[in-house]
Structure prediction request, 245 residues.
Amino acid sequence: MLNNIQTFDINSDDYAKFRPKYPRGFYDFLIQQLFSRDKMWDCACGNGQVAIDMVEYFNQIYATDISENQIINAFNHPKINYAVMQAEKTDFPDNFFDLICVGQALHWFDIKTFFKEADRVLKKGGVLAVFGYGFFYVDNEIDNLLQKNLYLKVKDYWSERNQLVINKFKGISFPFTKIESPVFEINLAWNLSDMISYIRTWSAVKIYNSQNKIKLENQLYNILKNVWKDIINVKMELFSFIRKK
Prediction:
């Protein structure tokens, strides 16, 4: 039976194409918190969505993920060094990084062990940034259809780890000194095919499809095709936990 971790090896190239990017203003805010911009770690990088957006800021970027297929489909750049590696146990030197980013991934970790590893490899005065996003919103009509035909159908197919990110990491005790952050929002211009391609990357959708022998995304497309007009503005709340060592 397909499990949540295995889903990241299915259609791995879709993550690079269809997962949302984080706003430039959020990255600018992170950079303002740093003493230096030599080395950064994009931890659980997927296809390197964060790493590729940060190349203009850093001399070197190290991007790691436990999924070899994700790394194979990663964005290439001479500043980015990719490796298949666990978040909790790396071969990086002590006091190595100015910034560690974990985008939409902390819930898959052994969190306490990862925080110890982050403490080891992060420089004094360096920043740990853990961030993510929730479900997307369009308008009342489409949101109601999504609730009935997507969210409710897959709600029992999310793992307990997914519930951590759905609940915005509530209850997690983060290390280091808290940095207050402004509120940021992800804004996307999607047609219906963009949205369908995005939900195809969800672990819960992949497991739902596998167990029910259907393609939920195809059903959803047929339901929405008469109400989703051309390009629509889609919003997601960005939540973050930013800490300075």
About this structure: Residues 36 and 197 are 38 Å apart (CA to CA).
